[in-house]
Design a protein that fits this description.
The chain contains eleven helices and twelve strands. It has an eight-stranded parallel beta barrel with strand order 1-4-5-6-7-10-11-12, surrounded by seven helices. The protein is of the alpha/beta class.
Length: 275
Amino acid sequence: MPLSGQGCVNTKAIDSMLTRRIIPCLDVKAGRVVKGVKFLNHRDAGDPVALAAAYNAAGADELVFYDITASSDERAIMVDVVERTAAEVFIPLTVGGGLRSVEDMYRMLRAGADKVSLNTAAVYNPNLIAEGARRFGSQCIVLSVDAKRVNAPDEPPRWEVFTHTGANPRPTGLDAIEWIKRGIDLGAGEICINSMDADGARTGYDLALLQAITTISPVPVIASGGVGSPHDMYRGIVEGGADAVLAASIFHFGDYSVADVKQYLAEHGVPVRRT
């Protein structure tokens, strides 16, 4: 049964209103928000609690909080930072990084998360998706996938799932599209797809990857990796078919505000929640 009283988000209800969500992403390392290029050369972007409060006030639709070294360091996520972040926001909060069990998920939901994001642990134990969905409801389970192009130049596009992204990413041998299909069958209520090739590069989302996923996914898809401008987000929604668009660098370092993105999207015919 779903966990009661935790404010799990009904993403299908959001979709039925036809609005598209704008989601700032807080990649947290050693208690600070950081952002790099292709998971390397991180720049400090500030305090997660202060940034979360600012994005909440700025009209963000949701927030994503990733403890980006929890899996590679083989440690638990920083519950205290999650609790302090959740206390500052009144919009849905997704938390991921180092979640290896249903008990870990429960701890994050108790700390104030609305949804939990599974990545590395789900690859090693796919049944974790099903267990989480049974206990908390599919709407609380986000399958996050880091995918990299692995096809030769003369071959059709193909993407492989990687874990422990950073200096030493680990290939899994899993085809990203097939893995996502399986994750949905197991109970994932939402997909967050991050292009490792585009991450932090500000060259736009991998639209071919997005299209390959959104055409087969019956659940909402969040586009991640590569945003450099509001136009990139527009293309992710209109051309890629994304239900939501996630970004970090352009928000953290002041290139654009959430309001800038929403105004651009609204002016170009994309329905968004205005504040």
